Amino acid sequence: PMRLHSVLGNTQRLDGGAMFGNCPRAVWEKWCPPDDRHRIDLACRALLVQDDSGRNILLEAGIGAFFEPKLRDRFGVVESTHVLIEHLAALGVEPSDVDVVVLSHLHFDHAGG
User: pTM above the 0.70 mark?
Assistant: First the structure.
């Protein structure tokens, strides 16, 4: 049977105004409070599909852990380790076990890992 796993990746903080666009800050900050730099917490998750033939298909690769400290701070990347790989390992999946990676687009928070 096919199995689906939501896999936690690295988290980051990005500007709340940029994320919510035309929605006024007074509306979104009530349930998504920004930090002192006006950034909100965002989680990057991937979807691991284990299909009937035994293939591991990973949808999105997350942020990863390649940023130098200055860029990590600029882009609000919280962790210095590759969280997605750690959570895949907890499911018994190593990077070499992934047969297919599907990326929705090439922004670093989707394709950086």
Answer: yes
